[in-house]
Write a structure and sequence with these properties.
This protein is an alpha/beta fold. The protein has six helices and six strands, in the order H-E-H-E-H-E-E-H-H-H-E-E. Helix 2 packs across helix 5 and helix 4 packs across helix 5. The longest helix has 13 residues. The relative contact order is 0.21.
Length: 151
Protein backbone atom coordinates (compact mmCIF):
# COMPACT_ATOMS: atom_id res chain seq x y z
CA UNK A 1 0.00 0.00 0.00
CA UNK A 2 1.32 3.40 -0.95
CA UNK A 3 0.50 6.42 1.20
CA UNK A 4 0.51 10.05 0.09
CA UNK A 5 -0.03 13.30 1.96
CA UNK A 6 -3.73 13.21 1.00
CA UNK A 7 -4.16 9.89 2.84
CA UNK A 8 -2.86 11.07 6.21
CA UNK A 9 -6.28 12.10 7.54
CA UNK A 10 -8.09 9.02 6.26
CA UNK A 11 -8.65 5.91 8.33
CA UNK A 12 -7.05 2.83 6.84
CA UNK A 13 -9.49 -0.09 6.61
CA UNK A 14 -8.21 -3.45 5.54
CA UNK A 15 -10.75 -6.20 4.92
CA UNK A 16 -10.61 -9.20 7.20
CA UNK A 17 -10.43 -11.75 4.37
CA UNK A 18 -7.40 -9.90 2.98
CA UNK A 19 -5.71 -10.14 6.41
CA UNK A 20 -6.40 -13.87 6.68
CA UNK A 21 -4.84 -14.60 3.28
CA UNK A 22 -1.75 -12.44 3.88
CA UNK A 23 -0.57 -13.90 7.20
CA UNK A 24 3.13 -14.69 7.16
CA UNK A 25 4.84 -17.63 8.83
CA UNK A 26 7.80 -16.81 11.05
CA UNK A 27 10.28 -19.37 12.38
CA UNK A 28 12.37 -18.38 15.42
CA UNK A 29 14.92 -20.08 17.65
CA UNK A 30 14.85 -19.62 21.43
CA UNK A 31 18.43 -20.81 21.90
CA UNK A 32 20.41 -18.31 23.97
CA UNK A 33 17.59 -15.76 24.24
CA UNK A 34 16.14 -14.31 27.44
CA UNK A 35 12.62 -15.45 28.33
CA UNK A 36 11.02 -12.01 28.72
CA UNK A 37 12.58 -10.40 25.66
CA UNK A 38 11.70 -13.41 23.54
CA UNK A 39 8.11 -13.34 24.81
CA UNK A 40 7.71 -9.65 23.86
CA UNK A 41 9.06 -10.29 20.34
CA UNK A 42 6.64 -13.18 19.89
CA UNK A 43 3.70 -11.18 21.29
CA UNK A 44 4.43 -8.31 18.88
CA UNK A 45 4.49 -10.74 15.94
CA UNK A 46 1.24 -12.40 17.04
CA UNK A 47 -0.47 -8.99 17.35
CA UNK A 48 0.90 -7.71 14.04
CA UNK A 49 2.63 -4.63 15.43
CA UNK A 50 5.27 -4.87 12.71
CA UNK A 51 2.73 -3.89 10.01
CA UNK A 52 1.59 -0.45 8.90
CA UNK A 53 -2.04 -1.57 9.05
CA UNK A 54 -1.82 -2.63 12.72
CA UNK A 55 -4.89 -1.81 14.76
CA UNK A 56 -5.55 -2.97 18.32
CA UNK A 57 -9.03 -4.33 17.55
CA UNK A 58 -7.98 -6.31 14.44
CA UNK A 59 -6.24 -9.66 14.49
CA UNK A 60 -3.48 -8.88 11.97
CA UNK A 61 -0.61 -10.98 13.31
CA UNK A 62 1.54 -13.76 11.91
CA UNK A 63 1.97 -17.46 12.64
CA UNK A 64 5.02 -18.05 14.87
CA UNK A 65 6.95 -21.32 15.10
CA UNK A 66 9.46 -21.39 17.97
CA UNK A 67 12.20 -24.03 18.13
CA UNK A 68 14.68 -24.99 20.87
CA UNK A 69 12.44 -23.81 23.72
CA UNK A 70 14.47 -25.79 26.25
CA UNK A 71 17.53 -23.56 25.59
CA UNK A 72 15.93 -20.29 26.72
CA UNK A 73 17.84 -18.25 29.32
CA UNK A 74 16.36 -17.04 32.62
CA UNK A 75 18.36 -14.41 34.51
CA UNK A 76 18.56 -13.55 38.18
CA UNK A 77 16.89 -15.65 40.85
CA UNK A 78 13.71 -16.20 38.82
CA UNK A 79 14.23 -19.96 38.58
CA UNK A 80 13.70 -20.29 42.34
CA UNK A 81 11.48 -17.31 43.15
CA UNK A 82 8.96 -17.33 40.27
CA UNK A 83 5.89 -19.52 40.81
CA UNK A 84 2.92 -20.45 38.65
CA UNK A 85 -0.32 -20.92 40.59
CA UNK A 86 -3.48 -22.81 39.65
CA UNK A 87 -6.66 -22.78 41.69
CA UNK A 88 -9.51 -25.24 41.23
CA UNK A 89 -12.05 -23.22 43.23
CA UNK A 90 -12.09 -25.56 46.22
CA UNK A 91 -10.65 -24.60 49.60
CA UNK A 92 -6.98 -25.41 49.93
CA UNK A 93 -6.53 -26.43 46.30
CA UNK A 94 -3.97 -23.86 45.22
CA UNK A 95 -1.18 -25.68 43.43
CA UNK A 96 2.12 -23.90 42.88
CA UNK A 97 4.94 -24.88 40.54
CA UNK A 98 8.30 -23.09 40.45
CA UNK A 99 9.90 -22.03 37.19
CA UNK A 100 12.68 -24.59 37.77
CA UNK A 101 10.19 -27.46 37.90
CA UNK A 102 8.29 -26.14 34.88
CA UNK A 103 11.48 -25.80 32.80
CA UNK A 104 12.39 -29.42 33.63
CA UNK A 105 8.91 -30.81 33.05
CA UNK A 106 7.67 -28.75 30.07
CA UNK A 107 9.71 -25.71 28.99
CA UNK A 108 7.23 -24.88 26.23
CA UNK A 109 4.58 -24.23 28.89
CA UNK A 110 6.74 -21.57 30.59
CA UNK A 111 7.17 -19.71 27.29
CA UNK A 112 3.47 -20.16 26.51
CA UNK A 113 2.50 -18.49 29.79
CA UNK A 114 5.00 -15.66 29.30
CA UNK A 115 3.65 -14.88 25.82
CA UNK A 116 0.02 -15.19 26.93
CA UNK A 117 0.48 -12.69 29.75
CA UNK A 118 2.07 -10.17 27.35
CA UNK A 119 -0.92 -10.16 25.00
CA UNK A 120 -3.88 -7.85 25.68
CA UNK A 121 -6.59 -9.40 27.83
CA UNK A 122 -9.41 -9.34 25.28
CA UNK A 123 -11.29 -11.72 22.98
CA UNK A 124 -8.42 -11.74 20.45
CA UNK A 125 -5.94 -13.34 22.86
CA UNK A 126 -7.07 -16.96 22.31
CA UNK A 127 -7.02 -16.81 18.48
CA UNK A 128 -3.58 -15.22 18.65
CA UNK A 129 -2.25 -17.91 20.96
CA UNK A 130 -3.50 -20.62 18.58
CA UNK A 131 -1.07 -19.27 15.98
CA UNK A 132 1.92 -19.92 18.28
CA UNK A 133 3.62 -23.31 17.83
CA UNK A 134 6.33 -24.35 20.33
CA UNK A 135 8.81 -27.20 19.82
CA UNK A 136 11.57 -28.78 21.87
CA UNK A 137 14.53 -29.14 19.53
CA UNK A 138 14.42 -28.53 15.78
CA UNK A 139 11.42 -29.25 13.59
CA UNK A 140 10.61 -29.43 9.89
CA UNK A 141 6.87 -29.63 10.39
CA UNK A 142 5.99 -26.21 8.92
CA UNK A 143 8.74 -25.92 6.30
CA UNK A 144 6.25 -26.55 3.48
CA UNK A 145 4.66 -23.17 4.32
CA UNK A 146 7.98 -21.36 3.58
CA UNK A 147 8.42 -19.61 6.94
CA UNK A 148 10.59 -16.53 7.25
CA UNK A 149 13.51 -17.30 9.58
CA UNK A 150 14.33 -14.70 12.24
CA UNK A 151 17.42 -14.34 14.49
Amino acid sequence: MEFTSKDLNKTLWVKQDHLEKKRNRVKMSAAGQHLGRLATQIADRLMGKNYAHYCDFWDTGDFVVLEDVEKVIVTGNKLNSKFYHTYSGYKGNVKSVSLTEMMKKSPEKAIWFAVRWMLPKNKLRDPRMKRLKLFIGKTDKYNNLNPQTLN
